[in-house]
Amino acid sequence: MRPFTYVRPDSAQAAIEAFAAAGPGARYIAGGTSLYDLMKLDIERPEHLIDVTAIRGLDGIETDGDRLRFEALAPMSAVAINRVVLRDYPVLAESLAKAASQQLRNMATVGGNLLQRTRCLYFRNGAGGVSAGMTYPCNKREPGSGCAAIGGLDRGQAVLGQSRSCTAVSPGDWPVALVALDAYVEILGRQGTRSLPVADLYRLPGGTPHLEFALTPGEIITAIVVPKAAAGRQSTYHKIRDRESYAFALASAAVALDMAGDTVRQARIALGGVATRPWRAVAAEAQLAGKQLTRETAIIAGRAALTGAKAGDHNGFKIELAARTVADALMIAAQRKPA
Ligand SMILES: Cc1cc2nc3c(=O)[nH]c(=O)nc-3n(C[C@H](O)[C@H](O)[C@H](O)COP(=O)(O)OP(=O)(O)OC[C@H]3O[C@@H](n4cnc5c(N)ncnc54)[C@H](O)[C@@H]3O)c2cc1C
Q1: Under 8 Å CB-to-CB from 158, ≥6 apart: which residues?
Q2: Which residues form the domain of 303?
Q3: Hey, which residues does 6 pair with through a beta bridge?
Q4: pLDDT at 132
Q5: Looking at the 3D structure of the chain, how many domains does it have?
Q6: Which residues does UniProt assign to the signal peptide (predicted)?
Q7: Which atom of ligand 1 is nearest to the CA of 172?
Q8: Which has the closest alpha carbon to 52: 113, 114, 112, 117?
C-alpha cells in the first residue's frame, strides 16, 4: 500500500469540503470492502481518504409512504433482513443476501455497493501497472494500454454493452434489482443536491472504460430511493454462479411482476453478470406485456432479454444461461403471492 492521509468528518457537508480541499487523489471510503482491496492490489492509489462512516443520520431505512428510502451508509445486511423489504420486495432482499458473505455484508454499505469496480481478472491482475511490467494490459486500469480479455480467455466477460476497448462485467447484484425497479440515487455535491436514476449512474465503456460512473468528483451518494409499485411482492433475484455462495454472478436476473391472474400486466426485468452495466431487458418486458405467463412465454422472453448479445471465444454459454435464468426467474416470481 502507498501512503495516504485519512480524515473522518461527521457531516456530509464537511466530507464534501474535505474532498474539495484535498484535491485530485481524494476518495471517499465507506465499508472499505472494495476500495481497500483495490488499494492492496495497487490498482487504486488514493492520496487522501475521506471516511464517510462517521456522518450522522446517513444509515436509515424508511419504508413508509410511497417509496422505500435507503440511506447510503445502511449496511447491506440490515437492508437484506428488513421486514418490509423481505415481504414486499424480495428481489431487493435477495440481491443483497446473495452477494458476498455475511461478514462482508455487515461491513459493506448499500451506497458503496453501487460504486464497486469490476471483478474482471485482467483489471485486477497483479500490481504496478503496465508501465511497471504488469502482465496484462487493461484500458480500464490504464487507459490506452489495450484489453487482454478481447481475444484472450474471456469466459467471465460481458456479452452485452461491450466495446472494442472493454468487455468487463458490472459486478454488483443490488444495482441490477434497483434498475429493474426504476430506483434512483440522491446525490449531494458542492453545487447542491440532485437525483439520478440508478440506470444512468453507469456509463457504457465505449472508448473510455476508465470512466465508469456518472458522478462528478466529490459528489456523495446520500440515499437510494425505490418508488413503490404494483410489481414488488411477485419478484425475485435469481443468481447463477460457479459455486452457490460467495461468488459473483455468471448470469443473474431481477424480475418483478404485476399480474392479473396468469396474465402479465407489467414485467420488469434486468440482467446481471452478462453486461458492462446493470442491463434493463426492455425487449423481454415488451414481449410479456398482456401475455399469459407460461414456461414457453418465459423462455421466449428470456431469449428476447439477450437481444443484441455478442459472445467472444469462451463466453458464448452465457447467452443461453442468461436466457434460461430470466425464464426461471419469471416462473419463480409468478409463484409468489401478490399483495
Ligand atoms: C470476496 C468478496 C466477494 C464479493 N461478492 C460480491 C457479490 O457476490 N455481489 C456483489 O454485489 N458484491 C460483492 N462483493 C463486493 C461488495 O459487495 C462491495 O465491496 C461492497 O458492497 C462495497 O461497499 P463498501 O461500503 O465496502 O464500499 P467501499 O469499499 O468503502 O467503497 C467503494 C467505492 O464507493 C465509493 N463510495 C462509497 N460510499 C460512497 C458514497 N456514499 N458516495 C460516494 N462514493 C462512495 C468509494 O470511494 C469507493 O470508490 C464482494 C466483495 C468481496 C471482497
Answers
A1: 167, 168, 169, 170, 274, 275, 276
A2: 235-334
A3: 49
A4: 57
A5: 1
A6: none
A7: 11
A8: 112
Between strands 48-51 and 5-7, the pairing is parallel
Give the model confidence (pLDDT) of 201-253 as tens digits: 999 999 999 999 999 999 999 999 999 999 999 999 999 999 988 999 999 99
One-letter identity of residue 187: I
Does 15 fall in a domain?
Answer: no
Residue 281 lies in a domain: yes
- Which residues are 255's β-sheet partners? 236, 269
Q: Tell me whether residue 288 is in a domain.
A: yes
CATH code for position 325: 3.30.390.50
The string of pLDDT tens digits covering residues 195-206 is: 999 999 999 999
Task: Answer for the pair 264, 290: CB distance below 8 angstroms, yes or no.
Answer: yes
**DSSP characters for 44-85?**
---SEEEE-TT-TT-S-EE-STTEEEEETTSBHHHHHT-HHH
Asked if residue 129 has pLDDT above 90, the reply is: no
Q: Which residues line ligand 1 (CB under 6 A)?
A: 27-35, 37, 52, 72, 76, 99-100, 104, 107-109, 111-113, 115-116, 171-174, 220-221, 248
Q: Is residue 220 part of a domain?
A: no
334 near 267, Cβ under 8 Å?
A: no
Pocket of ligand 1, candidates 7, 104, 186: which has the most ligand atoms within 8 Å of its Cβ, to mutate?
Answer: 104
C-alpha grid cell, residue 268: 420488469
Q: Which residue has the cell 460512473?
A: 213
